[in-house]
Amino acid sequence: MNLAAIGVPGLIIILVIVLILFGPRKLPEVGSAVGKTLAEFKKSARDIIDDDEVKQEEPKKIDRA
């Protein structure tokens, strides 16, 4: 999903809904949890991409028996 497609009004509506659902006291905890989740997702995606690149670079071994 493209963040630019949501636009500023959409982001404001999302923030208001989150504020109503969780309240102002829980908002920092929610933000922290979302940030940690995104960081872990990016790390995992980077690891998968790196593994795929390594597999593509390795020459295939042919057994001639």
What series of H and E elements makes up the topology?
H
Helical residue percent band: over 70%
Radius of gyration, rounded?
Answer: 21 Å
**Count of alpha and pi helical runs:** 1
Global geometry: elongated
- Unreliable runs, pLDDT <50, ≥5 residues? none
Terminal CA distance reads: 51 Å
Structural class: mainly alpha
**Mean pLDDT figure:** 81
Beta content comes to under 5%
The major β-sheet equals: none
Q: Got a strand count?
A: 0
Could you please describe the fold and organization of this structure?
The chain is mostly helical and 65 residues long. Helices cover 85% and strands 0% of the residues. It contains one helix and no strands. The longest helix is centred in the middle third of the chain and has 55 residues, at 3-57. The radius of gyration is 21 Å and the shape is elongated.
